[in-house]
Structure formats: C-alpha cells, structure tokens
C-alpha cells in the first residue's frame, strides 16, 4: 500500500485508474476545470465528450451493461448534475452499476444559491444506491473506492459522488490500499451465499413438480456470464420450460427449444399461459414487475413460487412466495445444481411430457405471426431483416432500443443467444435511452456491430449525440422505425380511448437522412419492403455512424398484449388470430394504469 | 400468511441503528415518503459518540407485507447498520415524554394539579395562571393525560415521540 500527497483532481484520476476505469463519459464546466486540467496532463483515462449530460449517463449504462463493469460519468455542478437525474433513475430501476462524479461549487459557497449550485445529493438521494458529498480531500480516495464497490456489489446500482471545487484543488493523502479495505464495509454487507436449507427446499419442490417453469430475469445477466451458463445448464438438465423477462433476454439461448419467448404484457402466448398454469414457478433474478404479473390476484394462482434474489426487499414485495432464497444468482445456481446432482433428482417424466404437450398447443397459435405486405414495411419484418442480415456480417452484435412499440417488437423478433447483447430501458422506460447507450456499447466494443433500434419519437430525445459518434468515429447503426407517431401511445388510444389520437401524431418531423448528413454521418431511407435489404446492407457495410429512416406501417399494433390490470389468461392476440384468447378476453376488459 | 390477516393494519415500533453521517435522517424519511409508508412517530439522537452511531425509533403502521417491506427497504440503505422490529422481535419497553402547558385559574388550576399527581407528572414551570407539566410513560398514558387536561385549559403540547428498547440482556 502506497501513500501519496496530491491534489484532489489527481486523487480522482489515480483512484479511477486503480479501479480499472478506462473510459468516462462527461462534459466539463466551471467547477470541474481543475479536474479537466489534470485529465489533460495524463494518459490512460479516456474521456468521451458528450453533447448532453443525460446522454453521458445512458452511454455509461451501455458501457456497463455490455461489459459487466462499472460505468463512469463526469459532469459539472448545477445543470450538469441535474441533467443526469433521468439516467440515474434509469440505472437504479434496471440495477446498472454506475459511478457519477459531479462537480460542486466551492465548500464555502454551498447553501448560498451560488452560480450553478444545485443540492444534487439531496436531489438524487432517492435515485441512487448511495451518494456522497466529499467535505475533506483526505476522504476523497476512500469515498471513490467505496463508490465503485457499492455500485458493482450486491444488487448493482448508481452511486453519485459530489465534489466541491476547493476539494479538487486542495492537497491531500491518497492511500491506494483503500481500494481493498472498503470491501469490509461497516454497514453494507450484501448476502451472496444463500441458506442451504432454502435451496434444498427449492430442489424438493422442483422435483415434485408436474408443470414447472423457469422465470428468469435481469438478475441472471447482472450476476455474470458464469451465472447465465449455470442457469442454462440447470434448465437443460431438468428439461423444464424457460421464459425470460425483458431484462433477462439472453440469459438463456433464445434459439433453444426450451425457451418459450419473453413473458409479460407483450410476451408470447405460450410463455404467459405457462406462467398462469404452472404448478411450480422458479423465479431466478426477476422481481415480479407489474408489466410481468398483470393483475396481482390472478397471477399464477395455482403455483408454488421459488424466488431467488440478491435484494431482500424484492422478496414478497409484489407477490408472496413460498420459498424465498436471498443470494447471488450465480452462487445459488451452483449450490442448487450441486444438490440436484447429489440427490440424482428427476422430474416425473410423464408429467413433464404432458406439460410440454400443453405448451406445444399454445405454441401452435404462433402468437408472433403477422401478415406481411409488399407495399408497406411492417415493423416486424424490418426487425427480422435487421436481425438476419446482422448474422450475415458474422460480427458480435449488440442491440439497444428506445422505448415504445419498436422496443417491444425488438424484444419479440430479435434473438439473443448470449447475455449482455440486449440493452433496453425496462424499469423506467426512458425514451432517449437507446441511442446514447449504443454509443457507450460501441466505445467498449469498437469492433462489434452495435445496432440501435429507435422510434421517430424517442430518437429525437437524444439525437444530438450523432455529433459525439462522429467525433469519436463510433459507427453505431441506428434504425428509426418511423411511423410518424408516438406508437405505443397511439396504440393505447386506439384500443382504450376511442381512437382519439390526442397529441400522439408526429406530423412534422425532420428529414432524418439530411439530419444525419448535416453531421457528416451516413443517412439512408427505406420506404418499400423491397428496398430494405439493400439499405440494411449498406448501413452494416459503412464505417460511418449511420441513421436509417425506415418508413413503417403506422397502423401496426404490438401483440400479444395483456392489457394493464388483466390476468395472463386474458391475453389478447393480434387480428391474425380469430379467437382472441382462451377465456374470450376482449379489449373492453383493459383497465389503464 | 392467510387471506384473513393479510390486510389488517398493524402498528410496529422499529429501531434502526445508523452511522451518524450527513443526510442519513433524510434517507430514512425520504424512503417513507417516497414509498408511501406512514410515520406515526420518529425520534433520533446520537447514542454512541465513539463509534458515531445514532439510533432512530420509528412507529409506523401498515399491513404485515408492508411492515416487512419497510424493514427490508431500511436495511437496503447503505448507512443503516441494523433494523430491529421491537414489536415482533421479543419483548420491549417504550417511553415517551411530553411537556404540557395548561392555563387557568381557580378550580381548574387545582384540578390540573390533582390529575398531574395521579399521572406522576411534575410541574417544571408555573406562573399565576399557568403550569408546564412534564409527563412520562407509554404513548397511551401521555395521550390520556393530555385528554384530561383539555377541558382544564390546555394551551400547548410538545412530545418527544416514542423511544423504545428491547428487554433483557441483548443490545441492538
């Protein structure tokens, strides 16, 4: 352990390097000038200069979720700091490890309504895992190491460190050993290993099941690649059907026969009916979100529920479970598989066969089928072509999305065989997330194909980052599924508000091709289905950031759909299907929440 | 948990040991307001100067599921060291203190002193036409004392809120 005297700014750079940070996303400002000066004088820490601080946070999220490492954000005081709030809430809801460093006015001015002062620790108290205001330069190193430890351990999340200008300029002591000592935190001790009794209870329950179902979530992806491998192993070993949440896509191979597709509001028919009818539900790293459960009192009424989660507050929050297991998914699965093997456990083969037969019936509905057209581009078709032509490039492909119809179609029609390749704003539903997040992914994976799926509404929320992509030559491919409206809002208005399209139609919009060209990027457009393949190939072949305006059918709706407040077996299928659902669910049963 | 007791509203006293650092009380209170939980009473003070620890006592109410959520959410806060539910985790004692100002003359003034005597409340300030009483006890006893003072010229009340501790040898 070495001890060095240096300025606050130098301490930050030293601590970040000790934490293995290679890149940060930020935007300078008055109070951060001493730190940016120190950044100028060093090598090894890369800084990506964004055009808006919200984009910096989403880019750091993209970096974090595609690498499994902590993302780093650096912004100035006041408006710089407040612009990060949406991104921080997003990271909090989706458990993304981030450290956000904010500059603050000099200590002597705090509380005086100084120029560009904002009480950012007060503002972000509810939307960070923890936050700090550094008051002594000698605490700075320890606080930074603690921040990175908090962000990545347990249930990951964003941590904010607010640093007044005078602390950046003051000289203090940096102890490199602080990096290791904070792991012995005095009050924060996440439980990683789970109680063996609970694991044995779970195994006994799974063994005796007739209609078991794995319900996997983002916790598996967060736990790491090893956890995903263990999860897949366990699913294969038991022969049990598996469904994943929006956040969990990729935790189990999407092309595997045991995968039923995503469940939830826009999940597949088979996944949702399996959720409803199963007798043992094995929830690994998911949190019974309301978009997954539908109406709580009708949620999977006849099942015993096992819930594995690292966050004790997720247990029994929405759904009361029978076997709660608190621990890290990877560790829990390792122990579960050990017990399963030791007991030479097996599921009643006959029961499992007839369960799979039931599922096959539901599958035969082909709930994702749609009627294609040769006159107008169906968004589903566009996504299938984006997916299939990406495979042709043989590149490792990452997808990010904005929020809305295109996001749901992307979740339904893209396919994820590996974790960390799918980045979407699940919890907060942040329009404006996808494009800057793709920027973060491409920064971390320069040789990968990074595709951002956007809507024309969402794209306009952070389009200024085309400039950043140009500045750093980050060849992100952004496909705007352009239906000239806020599609999901329009869909709900059509279904539940008598087709009164109140403020959801985007009649006036920029020429996205010219917009791209104005920044020096490549702009392309596809208007007819026949043009699509050529345009996608051109986009993939270019080494420029590319914006593709894909003119899609504005009347298309996302199906299947469980209306808000309905049960899983009240799922609505698309117009292609004659009977709407088993129980004759109808649009009128939808209650908007 | 059966359906019958699922929705019953329960009153719980929760003791929270926290690192006495800036913003910690705001974190605890913000959690309650942000998630829609009730605070019936809250007390806080530093209890260990060497270790820099404070103890927060919160009286809250909610269904059993909500009470469990409250404890789990509190435990999630980084500066929280321990959360103990004094209502369910073994026997405990609780006390509250109130300062009660009563103004009046003649028979009412004498009557207020008589009642104070029954409640073992002490007079800590007096003028020709007023008393300030200090009264200790369980929250219910303090409530009763204040209620009896109402017709006798109750002017003002300051209450500490409930402090509580478990019985027996174990510390938090």
Secondary structure: elements and pairs:
The complex is a heterodimer of chains A (about 600) and B (about 170).
Chain A: E1 3-7, H1 8-18, E2 23-27, H2 33-40, E3 46-49, H3 53-67, E4 71-75, H4 79-82, H5 85-93, E5 98-104, H6 120-123, E6 130-133, H7 137-152, E7 158-164, H8 165-169, E8 171-175, H9 178-181, H10 196-207, E9 212-216, H11 218-223, H12 225-238, E10 242-244, E11 259-262, H13 269-277, E12 280-284, H14 290-293, E13 304-309, E14 323-326, H15 329-342, H16 349-363, H17 379-393, E15 397-401, H18 405-413, E16 422-423, H19 434-444, E17 449-455, H20 456-459, H21 466-471, E18 477-482, H22 487-496, H23 512-518, E19 522-526, H24 532-541, E20 546-551
Parallel strand pairs in A: 2-3, 2-4, 4-5, 5-7, 6-7, 9-10, 9-12, 10-11, 12-13, 13-14, 15-16, 15-17, 17-18, 18-20, 19-20
Antiparallel strand pairs in A: 1-8
Helix pairs in contact in A: 1-2, 1-7, 3-5, 3-19, 10-15, 12-15, 13-16, 17-18, 17-24
Chain B: H1 3-6, E1 10-19, H2 24-34, E2 41-48, E3 53-62, H3 64-76, E4 80-85, E5 92-103, H4 107-118, E6 122-127, E7 130-137, H5 139-149, E8 154-159, E9 163-166
Antiparallel strand pairs in B: 1-3, 1-4, 2-3, 5-7, 5-8, 5-9, 6-7
Give a nutshell description of this structure.
The complex is a heterodimer of chains A (593) and B (172). With 593 residues, chain A is α/β, with parallel strands linked by helices.
Major sheet attributes of chain A: 6 strands, parallel
Order of helices and strands of chain B: HEHEEHEEHEEHEE
- For the record, the count of structural domains of chain A works out to 3
The biggest sheet of chain B amounts to:
5 strands, antiparallel
What would your notes on this structure say?
The complex is a heterodimer of chains A (593) and B (172). Chain A has 593 residues and is α/β, with parallel strands linked by helices. Chain A has three domains: 179 residues, Rossmann fold (3-Layer(aba) Sandwich); 168 residues, Rossmann fold (3-Layer(aba) Sandwich), CATH 3.40.50.1220; 173 residues, Thiamin diphosphate (ThDP)-binding fold, Pyr/PP domains (Rossmann fold). Helix content of chain A is 37%, strand content 17%. In chain A, the strands form four sheets. A six-stranded parallel β-sheet of chain A has the order 3-2-4-5-7-6, sandwiched between helices. In chain A, strands 11-10-9-12-13-14 form a six-stranded parallel β-sheet, with helices on both faces. The C terminus of chain A is likely disordered. In chain B, a hairpin with a 4-residue loop joins strand 2 and strand 3. Chain B has 172 residues and is of the alpha+beta class. Chain B has two domains: 83 residues, ACT domain (Alpha-Beta Plaits); 73 residues, Alpha-Beta Plaits (2-Layer Sandwich), CATH 3.30.70. The longest helix of chain B is centred in the middle third of the chain and has 13 residues. Chain B starts with a helix and ends in a 6-residue tail after the last strand. Chain B is 30% helix and 41% strand. In chain B, the strands form two sheets. In chain B, strands 5, 6, 7, 8 and 9 form a five-stranded antiparallel β-sheet that branches. In chain B, strands 2-3-1-4 form a four-stranded antiparallel β-sheet, with helices on one face. Chain B contains five helices and nine strands. At the A-B interface, strand 6 of A face helix 2 and helix 3 of B.
